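User: Fold this; tokens only.

Assistant: Input:
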Amino acid sequence: MEKDKQILRELAKRYAEIAANPINTERKNRGRDINDLKQRKPMVWIDEIPWHEMDIDGKLKLTSESKFAREMEIFLRRTLFRWEYIQADMVVESFFPITKAYTSSGIGIEVAERQLSNDASNHIVSHSYIDQLDTMDKVNTLKKSTIVADLALDEQRKNFAQEILGDIMPVKMVGHYIYHAPWYRIPRFRGVTPILFDLMDNPELLHATIKEFTDNGLSIMKQMEAQNLLDTNIPELHCTPPYSSDLQPGTGLKNIWFRCMAQMFGEVSPDMWKEFELDYVAPLAKECGLVYYGCCEPLERKISLLRENIPNLRKLGVSPQANPESCAEQIGRDFVYAHKPNPANVATTFDAETVRKEIARIVKTCEANNCAYEFVLKDISTVGYKPQNLIDWTKTVMEIVG
């Protein structure tokens, strides 16, 4: 324990020095202004990093021993690493965060799959899912999830961290936003291909399925609200800046962000997407304060429907597959344009000119359309075991936007 304590305290002192840098306040204010739809220099955030490929000079090597200590060490080392090498516009908070823990009873079935991987160290693998929801009888066996806040674990982790860090920085419990993406979960119980066929061949089955997941999602939201698991003040909103003056501090649904997407419907027609996704997700989204929609699916054909059906929509994810000019023209001043740069540009070799053209195009079209916008590099499956790719990407992009 004494060894673990010494390791964490040394890392925490360096973390606290960074957290005290006034630039963190400037970045939080700029991120808040952007989410409040004010035009500012765009934020640049990097997330979903292949950490197993990123170590430089052993700076990510864990040396503590106990479970809680290693959890803390991972957070501290990765934060320090990002600040040194791929800082961009990251924000380091002035406290050590502990995310509120809870358990879920699930829906009565578990994912059944086969996996294929070419890198044992990478959690990004190929999946072949076994179809477990191919009949109405199977759908009818799904159960409602029971959410239980794990207050004992929260207290244990908080006390452990406070004992070590108490005189260096405060320890703060952090709650959750709502992340409701049923068409991310359902394919894990069926596979994508059967669902795409059933959109035409068996729509009644898919309506029954999405209704079960929607009803369960609303139940989960209400349970989390009742158990004080939600939070306005979160450190990130699915890899993007979460700050907004339009959300009043609190733990109710009206105080928090709602995050949703339907990536597998990227090439499905707007009408069919509305029938199977938007009509189900919109009532849940309206329960919350602000909504962030979209991830890796192109949305240019669906923005008008989102505008009409989700009055509290605030941020839209614009993927590398989307047409940026069409998206920017439709988004205008009304929503945040959250651009996702292409992670393929850091996957093998780094070509600065390709990245410059990509980023410059987004800057030009967002400014021409008076968009509040941000850059969020995520889904980085690999950098080819070359951390310099990500370092060079960060330097290149910051030069363009800065």
